[in-house]
Write a structure and sequence with these properties.
alpha/beta; Rossmann fold; 2 domains; 6-stranded mixed beta sheet; 14 strands; elongated; binds adenosine-5'-triphosphate; binds magnesium ion
């Protein structure tokens, strides 16, 4: 029987009777990256703490590689690597000593610790700072040490809470490239309030707001739900026949025409398909129009998220 690397079912967390997270469910396989997206206070950290065993859900169940986090805690926890929002590193420790400690805490056998620490240092390109004291390192390096500590136990599931906060854009890109390398060996959950950051990385996305799951699914399926893209063409010699042909196509949802004072015409199409752009150009050419400008705009998943947030807020 196969089971997902991570299975979270009906997670709920109540503090003093108030549910700060409710009805969060998702599953994730090895090799997949899941983006947990939500605004400040949405319940991302609370959800992440529940799936990494840092706090007990008030209701619901978490299974790690088939091991129930509540009833089979030791086996489940061994398979989780967790990088908290504010990674509590020991500032006075040397990098390699800290990783050794974390490996032992994850139950790595004494004889294997050395090799595991070396492996993590190499993976995160930290060999050059292995003897350095953690407190002296830059933010980017500290974050890599935190990630090394999270992977040193070779977890099945790697859980990262807003790992790129406080990194500069170059460090952020480096960090995402690293995650992309790590996906081969782990199922990875990353929380963020900015989906744009994760859009290319995530195979699955869970949107939460006010502790509730608005939508969850594969990035591809969510993209397919996206309302529409736009194609805007400015051209000379646009005839009514051309406009009618464009407007009649099944992929075109709406068509707005604006005649400019300079004799050019602007045609803005709302389309259901990305690939309409070259077809529009070809039809214009066939109708004898001269294309001045032809651009396609595609809304990102962030647009879908905001749309969901608005409809959620209106309820
Ligand atoms: N220990 C706690 N006791 C009471 N309420 C809590 C506790 N921890 C979190 N909360 C509340 O739960 C809600 C969700 O918080 P959480 O930290 O999970 O959000 P988040 O999505 O991680 O936000 P951020 O983007 O700011 O990190 C907040 O309203 C917070 O005040
Ligand atoms: Mg948080």
């Amino acid at each position: 029987m196969t089971h997902p690397a991570l299975d979270a079912v009906g997670l709920e967390k109540r503090y003093r009777g108030r549910a700060v997270v409710a009805g969060v469910s998702f599953a994730l396989g090895r090799g997949e990256v899941l983006g947990l997206i939500g605004p400040n206070g949405a319940g991302k950290t609370t959800t992440i703490r529940m799936i990494s065993g840092a706090t007990r859900p008030s209701a619901g169940r978490v299974t790690i590689d088939g091991h129930d986090l509540a009833t089979d805690a030791i086996e489940a926890r061994r398979r989780i690597g967790y990088l908290p929002e504010h990674a509590p590193l020991y500032d006075e420790m040397r990098v390699s000593d800290y990783l050794r400690l974390r490996a032992r805490l994850k139950g790595v056998a004494r004889a294997d610790v050395h090799a595991r620490v070396d492996g993590a240092l190499e993976r995160l390109d930290l060999g050059g700072v292995r003897r350095r004291v953690i407190g002296e390192l830059s933010k980017g390096f500290r974050q890599r040490v935190g990630l090394a500590a999270a992977i040193v136990g070779r977890p099945v599931v790697l859980v990262l809470d807003e790992p790129t906060v406080g990194l500069d854009p170059a460090q952020g890109r480096q960090f995402r490239a690293l995650i992309d390398e790590l996906r081969a060996d782990h199922a990875i959950v990353i929380s963020s309030h900015a989906l744009v950051e994760l859009e290319r990385l995530a195979d699955r996305v869970v949107f939460i707001a006010n502790g509730r799951q608005l939508v969850a699914g594969t990035t591809a399926a969510l993209r397919a739900r996206l309302p529409v893209g736009r194609v805007v063409m400015r051209a000379l010699g646009v005839t009514d026949a051309l406009v009618a042909e464009l407007d009649d196509d099944a992929r075109v949802v709406a068509c707005a025409v604006e005649r400019g004072a300079d004799g050019s015409t602007s045609v803005a199409l709302s389309v259901r398909d990305d690939d309409v752009q070259s077809w529009v150009g070809a039809r214009a050419f066939a109708h004898g129009a001269t294309v001045v400008e032809l651009v396609a705009e595609r809304p990102g998943l962030e647009a879908l998220f905001h749309e969901l947030l608005e409809t959620d807020g209106a309820r």
